[in-house]
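Need tokens for this chain, all 422 residues.
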Amino acid sequence: MPDEISVDDPASTTEVELSPLLAPRTDDIRFITSASDLDDAVAALLAGFGALAVDAERASGFKYSQRAYLIQLHRLGAPILLVDPIAVCEDDPEAFARVQLALQDLTWIIHAATQDIPCLAELGLRPKKLFDTELAGRLAGFERVGLGAMVARTMGLQLAKEHSAADWSTRPLDQSWLNYAALDVDVLPDLMSALLGELENQGKLEWAEQEFDNLTRFAPKAQKEDRWRGISGLHALKQQRDLAIAKELWMAREGLAQKLDVSPGRLIPDSSIIEVINSKPRTKAELNANKKFFGRASRSYLDLWWEATARGISTNDLPLLKLPASGIPNHRIWAHKFPEADARLTAAKMAMAVVVERENVPAENILSPDSLRQLCWSVEPKSESQISDFLLQLGARPWQTKLTSRVLEEALSPLWHLPSQE
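Here are the structure tokens for all 422 residues:
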């Protein structure tokens, strides 16, 4: 194994010679575009051994949807499969149901599983057992947990990542892209093996197993109904009418993006929405003449943008400037408005910093920041066991509460009296 410190630490004076991995280490790479070929290839996977390396490529930033445009599958002693899910589903909509049935009992190796689980789930693919190499690296104390950095550190190989932001909906796929995609799953079994040893040596394997089991039930958060309030620059708007125009333009863009399956920002950027609000065009021609209103669809769908602008200008359904508070207040205002809660949060963070230093695990992986804030907002004094139960109800895993409950009780017990949180 190469010197671990020098690879991840730019300040190190020791240099490690990395071997470039330019092509997958197997000649059996199959590009799959039909259901029958997929069935045959999955049978070949089952003849291999060990865990199943899984990856997915999307077209984020290019397409509206987050669907997978390429699925990569690999086991040791078996071929690397590069599967076109669009073509396969058109050939046989039930094809991936058979894949799930055949492969569901294997441990799936995924790097940064929360990114790929949603698009895999759209195809009916869901791991029952999982090993997340990125999360394993965090628990093992790696400073850098990108796939390339981790492969360099554990395997001494330089993994090119030049196509990570490519438009994977492109067809036909360039051979260099397919090579890149194959490399991602080629290295995962060896990376898993190295990380298993690292976690076991550090006494953290049980922690990882609890985390991986929790990940098998991962689901992305439900989208907010007022997503339009995420427009960049919206915070500067102080009039309800301006918000109404912003909302109408955002909804028009969202509908068109979904219809065309194009990333919304590629139609018109947020800055164009803000420009319309600031310039207040009185006619469609005036909107058309505004050079600061731009984007690939700014003129081809001019009628759509003008109609949305007109609706915003005329509607009586004006959005609230500020939404009513829900849940606990933002912790950034605690020091000013809720000093007792802020004192508890400050003490809790100091206690957590000691745990982070001792265990060499990022704070957010030891306990989610939201769970910590929920605990500190609570006005009821809690014993160590009550803190553990409280955190478990919020979704913390047993290993996390075992590490944190006592230190948090010790930090918070002097401060747990009723604050003025009205």
